[in-house]
Design goal:
Blueprint: H1 2-13, H2 17-36, H3 41-55, H4 59-67
């Protein structure tokens, strides 16, 4: 639940959902690097739990908002004839 509130606050701070998604991906890569290169199991475990807190709580709202922006060029065009 804490991650959801942090994600909502970050969505207000970062204007576009794609930039938000990129920032979260960078945080996850950083936490994975910390977890993989750390010899202390407790610290690695906490960084893996932090990945769940950072990544998952607001996946659906950002994916939905990115998909709702419009199909653009990917939409099939209907023939008038």
């Amino acid at each position: 639940m804490v991650g959801r509130f942090i994600g909502a606050w970050l969505l207000r701070a970062i204007s576009h959902p794609a930039r938000y998604w990129l920032a979260r991906a960078a945080m996850v890569i950083l936490l994975l690097t910390v977890s993989a290169n750390n010899r202390r199991q407790l610290f690695s475990g906490w960084s893996l739990l932090a990945i769940r807190t950072v990544q998952f709580p607001s996946c659906f709202p950002t994916i939905f908002s990115l998909a709702s922006e419009g199909p653009g060029q990917a939409a099939p065009r209907k023939d008038p004839g």
